[in-house]
Amino acid sequence: MYKKMIMPGVMGIMAGLLASTVMFADFPGGGGTASIASANGDAEKVYVPFGKKDDYYLFASGGHSGQMFIYGVPSMRRIRTVPVFSPDPATGYGFDKESKAMLGGYSWGDLHHPAFSETKGEYDGKYLFATDVANNRAAVMDLKTFTVMDMLQTPNTSGPHCAAFVTENTEYLFLPTRFSVPLGNEYAPLDEFKTKYKGVMSAVKFNEQSKKQELAYQVALPPWSFDLSDAGKKGSSDWAVMTTYNTEEATTNLEINASQKDRDYIVLFNWKELEKMVADGKADHVNGVKMIDPAKVNAGIYLVPVAKSPHGVDVTPDGKRFIASGKLAPAMTVFSFEKAFDAVKNKKFAGQEQGIPVLDYNAVMEREVNPENALGPLHTQFDDKGFAYTTMFISSEVVKWNIETGETIDRVPVQYSPGHSVSAEGDSASPDGQWLVALNKLAKDSYLSVGPSHPESMQLIDLSGDKMKVVQSAPVDPEPHYAQMIKADKIQTINVLPKDEKRPNSVWKQEEARIERHGNVVDVYGIAMRSKFTFDAKASRKDVIEVKQGDKVVIHLTNIDLDEDITHGFGINNYNLNMEVQPGETKTLEFIADKAGTFPIYCTNFCSALHQEMTGYLLVSPN
Ligand code: K7E
Ligand code: CUA
């Protein structure tokens, strides 16, 4: 009954998306929401009693919220929101000097694909990378503190949707882009699309010493849209693959014009060769970046034809195959790296496109997998037993199939229209099996209504038995494009930031708190502790900052409470400023006191029984 009621709505959307009518089939193992509700034995599986912790961390991308959402699996309890590309008043991210500079003036971002740092193809639990489709940035989150420590903006590019993915030992983070633009993002009429526009891929290195990302080089690919990518593993670890659509090079009405050809491509490239080419001085210099042009040099880049408008491409855990999913095709296509390497070696080319050799489809393709009535395959994940799990956007299900034979093993409906799914350690060389989370684009009537727009949904699927079983569902804010799931014990957070007396601008002894004036600049070296602020140890009112209108005020605040979870906030009434200072942390707030008046200061983070008393004043005397 339930299922029937909502189907017309879902179908309407599908029909709109595809401009064609799609039929819902009744799938084996169906039963929809009813099967979740009636699953009493399943409640035990996902129940994590108070005092016990989840087995896995799930990092779900927050899409155009620019944030990352952290959940525990199997409970699916949301633990934290970590701001990445957008300011966050709760933590003061984007308010304090350092994070404000890091955000570069942007107040939003579009986070699609997070990726863990890897060592020998395994998640090492150290860092999480993410890219911003909106403003061409790449960020690194430190998993010791769950805070972003570096941000890099890439020139010559637009919309690194096709990222982040890291190579086997985090040698590189590659950022191919969804939109082609003229180099330097300069003005060029769309009539010059074929000649002036490029789909640039950036190769970014992360320096663990300096904790900074560095743009190593770029590759000027044809003006196509690059969609998704994955790095090789083991025998294919020097290689990476990415899907591309709009090889028609349409500049308008892409819905129709970018789906003209029956075939698009998977770009197969050898990053070791690219690296060598750059080292050998074969790159041009464009706007201060080393740029490889595959039309000019034989760059170790090849094109593999694939069914039109592909979306995901995923490398199997053993590194032997890559699987493409076509949003307009009903099939997953399994390609063999070994066959591709053979084709490259023996020059089995079917032609070339803009100087890049095209490999013969049949020489590289191993099998087309076409489960009956399954429609809209988007992304594939893996378990520890040689099975693949592909999300079907249009037929709203997850299909489990055998990688070696292509045989369909099981299918389970999800509510509704899954984009990605993520399995436990699913992108590593040794996935865990056990859990898969489907990231559904439409929750429809799954939760209490909150108006016309609904949350997205994540459904936890138990992979341990012969049959997949949906055992839990959790709402998630827009928009879970992708997620990463890691064993909880791989992540070692710190409880307090180290007391470092040499840290610039930090003050650890109350008697050293001081206010210094240098011309129009007022530097405050203050302390936050339970339950007071000390800005000026020598003043009669130690919790007051007095400045003149127009002064530049620089407040350095150190939280000297070296106790787990004792965080202080620092908000200034009517000055639109707030920041969080974690235990042992020093943060700087910088602003022009352009408004004269009396402005209460208060701790915004509940910290003790006398938290309410943790206040002070900012007095700005008029000119
Ligand atoms: Cu939503 Cu990976 Cu941006 Cu597919 S992406 S669905
Ligand atoms: Cu410090 Cu509340």
From TrEMBL:
GO cellular component terms, semicolon-separated: cell envelope; membrane
Keywords: Copper, Metal-binding, Oxidoreductase, Signal
Stretches of the chain forming a coiled coil according to its record: none
Compartmental location: Cell envelope
Residues spanning the signal sequence: 1-25
Predominant cellular place of this UniProt entry's protein: other
GO MF terms, alphabetically ordered: copper ion binding; cytochrome-c oxidase activity; nitrous-oxide reductase activity
Organism superkingdom: Bacteria
EC number: 1.7.2.4
Domain Cytochrome oxidase subunit II copper A binding: 517-623
CDD domains named in the record: N2OR_C
A Pfam family annotated for this UniProt entry: nos_propeller
Enzyme class: oxidoreductase
InterPro entries reported in the protein's UniProt record: CcO_II-like_C, N2OR_C, Nitrous_oxide_Rdtase_Sec-dep, Nos_propeller, NosZ/Cyto_c_oxidase_sub2
NCBIfam families listed in its UniProt record: nitrous_NosZ_Gp
Protein name: Nitrous-oxide reductase
Species in which this protein is naturally found: Paenibacillus solanacearum
